[in-house]
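discrete fold record:
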Amino acid sequence: MDEQTFTDDIRGGKRTELDRLRSDKALLAVTGADLSAGTVLETVALSLDGLQATLAEWAEETTADPARDAFADAAASLRADCERVGAELDGEPAGDPPEPIPTVRTFEGPVERVAAAFVGHGLVFDGILLQAVSFFVNEAERGRADLVRELRSTTDDRVDDGAATLGTLCAGEEDWDDARTAASAVIDAAYDEYVETLSGMGIDPKPVC
């Protein structure tokens, strides 16, 4: 197993879940069906803020150099992203930053944390950002669409950075298995929440063929 094989393995193993989390129902689920420009942007902002807070906390308590540096660098990048989105909102997002995806915070080892927060979370968040871009394009808000495109690019970079960090942390197949379990658990948790939320709205979470 190596970093590229790992990411491809996660994408392939969770193809159905990730495809549905990238569907046009994704924004309905994360915004509670409030598809206003402010709510969509605030949802993105709070998600970034929650992940930033998590990674900053982990950077302070992690002793393994590759993981600590990865957490610190990503937290700094996310802080800058939060400020850019906050400026679009003309202030800080309302409410407390949510946990990025609750399952992310259940892991304690550096391998599992990197896999969960960078790869698992990144692959889920990419789908939300994809739909946010489409939303702002449809709303003829070019500036916000471009901003979210840039956020999507940095999220993609974060997935790659996470996989590269795993390449230095994983000493053997057992470590890679732990990483796979963590990343998959985050995707599964996000998908379960997606299904539960849409089903509660009376919406079929499966695509209409």
